[in-house]
Amino acid sequence: MVSATFRFYEELNDFLARPLRRRAFSYACAPAATAKHMIEALGVPHTEVELILVNGESVGFNHLLADGDRVAVYPKFEALDIQPLLRVRERPLRVVRFIADAHLGGLAPLLRLAGFDTLYDNHYPDADIEALAAAEQRIVLTRDRELLKRRSITHGCYIRTLRPREQLREVFERLDLAGSAQPFRLCLMCNVPLRRIAKEEVGTRAPDGVLERHAQFVTCDVCRRVFWEGTHWQRMRALMDSVAAAPRQSVRT
């Protein structure tokens, strides 16, 4: 029987059974087990892992474990630029795009508000999320760790916080999105680009008095809603500014 000693660091411990957290422990491995197989068998999605050291040497997920190996597993490092963070093995992401699962219905429109193409449908089965993420090179956002263990999902984030605005801050910090945000570019409902329209085109799609108080308008060609820089826009602008300006957490050891 093959047995290896494992040690998980920082937030990866959140996925482990309590007796295994923040300490080295021995664990029996399946025959011909890879590092990925055992890491996920212990409860940690592979998308949360940045670095694996076996006996002090960096290895990939497909590394076969041997009896007596010492395995150290580290989380995504926080103080990295967006492209290195999102580079996975041989395939980098060219554009930052997301797909959010049914648990994140409040986060999806906030990411769209920040200008990030984000698919969301609370009826998506896990298989559809997996297929769309692979076909369109999207980052999977979820509170379901089992979803992130699916083989073809290579880019993903397990969301730890519960409130949508805090979830937005979490994603911004983990993926260093402040420099990539383009607020007010997408429709919050339809996830398609907004376009400017002349005041004359607005017609009855805005309440009485809005045309007199505002000069600039944008619209969504799917839902045909019209938007302008009112008090709601100002609140959303303040949220975007606060998220983009939030100091990043330092790298933890």
Secondary-structure blueprint of this entry?
Blueprint: E1 2-8, E2 25-29, H1 35-41, E3 49-54, E4 57-58, E5 70-75, H2 82-86, E6 98-100, H3 107-113, E7 118-120, H4 126-136, E8 139-142, H5 145-148, E9 156-158, H6 164-175, E10 195-197, H7 199-202, H8 210-213, E11 217-219, E12 226-227, H9 231-245
Parallel strand pairs: 1-5, 6-7, 6-8, 8-9
Antiparallel strand pairs: 1-2, 3-4, 3-5, 10-11, 11-12
Protein name: Twitching motility protein PilT
Organism: Paraburkholderia phytofirmans (strain DSM 17436 / LMG 22146 / PsJN) (Burkholderia phytofirmans)
Domain Mut7-C RNAse: 97-239
Question: How would you characterize this protein structure?
Answer:
With 253 residues, the chain is an alpha/beta fold. It folds into three domains: 2-75, Ubiquitin-like (UB roll), CATH 3.10.20; 82-184 and 241-245; 195-233, no CATH class. It is built from nine helices and twelve strands. It has helices at residues 35-41, 82-86, 107-113, 126-136, 145-148, 164-175, 199-202, 210-213, 231-245; strands at 2-8, 25-29, 49-54, 57-58, 70-75, 98-100, 118-120, 139-142, 156-158, 195-197, 217-219, 226-227. It has a five-stranded mixed beta sheet, covered by helices on one side. Strands 7-6-8-9 form a four-stranded parallel beta sheet, sandwiched between helices. A three-stranded antiparallel beta sheet has the order 10-11-12. Strand 8 (139-142), helix 5 (145-148) and strand 9 form a beta-alpha-beta unit. Mean pLDDT is 88; it is low at 78-92 and 249-253.
